[in-house]
Design goal:
about 300 residues, alpha/beta, TIM Barrel, DNA polymerase, domain 1, 2 domains, seven-stranded mixed sheet, two-stranded antiparallel ribbon, 11 helices, 9 strands, globular
Length: about 300
């Protein structure tokens, strides 16, 4: 594939609010995307649907196209690799999705207490209470909340460094967790009328063979798309996953994975243009996009 200069699109189909581990309310994050001239967005909080009503109302008021979304946590493969599956164009009231995500949320607080105990063993006390202070939804306490506590306490300079030093596999604050199965998570999304998307595939520690096996299992479960443009993808990653999307007949998505101002590599509301060989997932979802009513 020929190299090209990276340009920006006004579409963002993957970002977070306070309903999970984002720093802004649903209204605030949609407003920020609008300020950055977004034309189509999707709120995709982790394992949670509670922010979608506020986000959809704000998008309608501001004249921004909107898709109901979610990001489901999945344990996949023999070693329980954690992967994330975004659902776009979902019905947020569908019982299978609502009940399935409620099951996924169980156990997060127990995991958080174990993370805090492990951090205490390396001299970091008060991590559980510190993380909870950042958490607006206790059911969804996450590694990001611990990372913000550690930055606020002055122990680490930024969230990215916290993850690298403490919160990834093999580090002192990481605790594995059994999430949904891939087939269950994709099944809930499909049952709710949505399209399942492999989120930020460049972040997973998978070689070529395992990545292709993940895609095959994902498609067998009913998945249809993959994130090609992501806040955590390089230009080389985009080329790689565009080619995989073409090879496996997947739609292509684009999302910033924005959580908070100053965190991560990409602000909300703008993503890189997809390579020309991609089929944009928003074409697949045209009938599910909530568009502002025209006024005379």
């Amino acid at each position: 594939m020929p190299r090209r200069r990276m340009t920006m699109a006004s579409i963002d189909l993957h970002f977070h609010s306070r309903a999970s581990d984002g720093a802004l309310t649903p209204a605030e994050v949609i407003g920020r995307a609008h300020e950055r001239e977004a034309t189509l967005v999707a709120l995709t909080d982790h394992d949670c649907l509670r922010g979608l009503g506020e986000a959809a109302e704000t998008a309608a008021r501001l004249g921004v196209g909107f898709l109901n979304g979610v990001e489901a946590s999945v344990s996949w493969g023999n070693k329980g690799q954690t992967v994330h599956i975004v659902g776009l164009g979902i019905d947020p009231a569908h019982p299978a999705l609502v009940d399935g995500l409620a099951c996924v949320r169980q156990g997060r607080i127990d995991r958080a207490r174990e993370m805090a105990e492990q951090l205490a063993r390396v001299g970091i006390d008060g991590a559980f209470d510190g993380a909870m202070a950042w958490c607006h939804n206790p059911e969804l306490i996450s590694r990001t909340h611990f990372a913000r506590f550690l930055v606020e306490s002055g122990r680490v300079k930024d969230v990215r460094t916290v993850f690298r030093k403490y919160l990834t596999p093999g580090k002192p604050g990481y605790v594995a967790h059994q999430w949904a199965t891939l087939s269950d998570a994709v099944g809930w999304i499909v049952a709710a009328g949505g399209v399942a998307v492999i989120a930020h595939p460049g972040r997973y520690d998978l070689g070529r063979t395992l990545m292709e096996r993940l895609i095959v299992d994902f498609k067998d479960a009913g998945g249809e798309a993959i994130e090609v443009a992501s806040g955590s993808h390089s230009l080389d990653d985009m080329h790689k996953f565009a080619l995989l999307a073409q090879r496996f007949d997947l739609w292509s998505s684009a999302g910033s994975d924005f959580h908070a101002p100053g965190e991560g590599c990409r602000d909300v509301g703008r993503t890189e243009d997809l390579p020309p060989i991609c089929r944009p997932v928003w074409d697949r979802l045209a009938e599910r996009i909530l568009r502002p009513a025209l006024t005379e």
